[in-house]
Write a structure and sequence with these properties.
two-stranded antiparallel ribbon, about 70% helix, about 350 residues, about 0% strand
Length: about 350
């Protein structure tokens, strides 16, 4: 009988597991540092600090009606701060956003009143004008290569002059006529400037719009291709173009998004007060930009979030109304904003360095 032997396979003992070698770049960072790296964390902590401060300094803030007023004030800033923040993430500025709000409201009011039209005709016309202003800003920035700071500064001056001159020419005054008795006013007011009651407290509809827009902007930034395009063009537009990102479309659409925000806030102002002062809006663009910067959007573009500007706008609303409830001189408001802006920039810088330190 023939015996056949089979060779047993060699058994190799794996080396005992030891500590993984890392160079500091692939090491898992602690959860606290990863949270600090988020742009909205710093402003959230700042918002909590401001809220607690005014809870102590201004007892009326503890009432539900006072908080509703604070949230309303925050929402009128926050609705515009969101598209401004997206534009900044895309690497651009819009200094005309404040007066563009008034341009939109003036267009709707004067067109409807002077031509005796349904106010919805003015609303639609104002939307077209606002989007056209945004398109023009974006097109000039892309085609000329000039900084958006210079382009939109020019637009700011043009709109400021047109708002005053045209209003005086058409109405003979610096304000538009009252449109509260015109056809379509009540329906438009329900959409843009209504309120509802919660627990005996009147809540403005703009607060709901503000939170819905923030959720939508967050989803766009984090879950869509367009959100990736925004970060890409803000980081390096030439590299983005090289990998197929439609840079021209993205930048122009972001400016038009600011135009949409200006239209929406302009319609709220119009249907809240029935008339518009043509000289308003100057300086509001700095508040919108500051809310975005405090919310973690970098001035150089390519980084930021939609949640951060929500807390930034809340801080502004909290300070603006908190000073009144505390019985302080409201002239201190701008000083507080300056301190908040400088503090937020320094905190964001410290947070960023702490989070990335090995």
């Amino acid at each position: 009988m023939r015996m056949t032997q089979h060779a047993e396979p060699a058994v190799t003992t794996p080396p005992a597991p030891g500590p993984k070698e890392t160079d500091g770049r692939t090491a898992e960072r602690p959860l606290a540092l990863r949270l600090l790296a988020r742009p909205e964390v710093g402003v959230f902590l700042g918002a909590v600090a401001v809220y607690v401060f005014f809870l102590v300094a201004a007892p009326p803030v503890r009432e539900g009606s006072a908080m509703a007023n604070i949230l309303y004030q925050s929402s009128t800033i926050g609705i515009m701060a969101l598209p401004v923040a997206l534009l900044m993430i895309g690497g651009e500025f819009d200094l005309s956003s404040g007066v563009a709000v008034i341009t939109s409201a003036l267009t709707a009011s004067m067109l409807a009143y002077q031509l005796t039209l349904n106010v919805w005709v003015g609303v639609v016309a104002a939307l077209v004008v606002s989007l056209a202003i945004g398109f023009l800003n974006g097109w000039l920035v892309v085609k000329t290569g000039l900084p958006s700071f210079l382009i939109t500064l020019g637009t700011f001056l043009i709109l400021q002059g047109v708002n005053l001159a045209v209003t005086k020419l058409v109405t003979g005054n610096v304000a538009t006529d009252d449109i509260s008795n015109m056809d379509g006013f009540s329906g438009a007011k329900k959409i843009f400037a209504s309120s509802f009651e919660v627990g005996g407290v009147q809540i403005k509809i703009t607060i709901v719009y503000w939170l819905v827009f923030a959720a939508l902007a967050t989803w766009v930034l984090l879950r869509t291709k367009y959100g990736n395009w925004i970060f890409a063009v803000g980081g390096n537009k030439e590299s983005a173009r090289a990998v197929g990102v439609p840079v021209t479309f993205t930048k122009i659409s972001l400016f038009m998004l600011v135009g949409f925000g200006a239209w929406f806030v302009g319609m709220h102002n119009l249907f809240s007060f029935n008339t518009v002062q043509s000289g308003e809006g100057v300086g509001q663009e700095l508040i919108y930009i500051s809310a975005a910067v405090i919310g973690g959007c970098l001035l150089t573009g390519g980084a930021g979030s939609a949640i951060g500007p929500v807390f930034g706008a809340f801080m502004f609303g909290m300070v603006q109304q908190g000073i009144v409830y505390a019985g302080w001189n409201p002239d201190w408001f701008k000083a507080f904003l300056g301190v908040m802006l400088l503090g937020a920039v320094l905190i964001n810088l410290w947070v960023s360095r702490t989070a990335t330190r090995r």
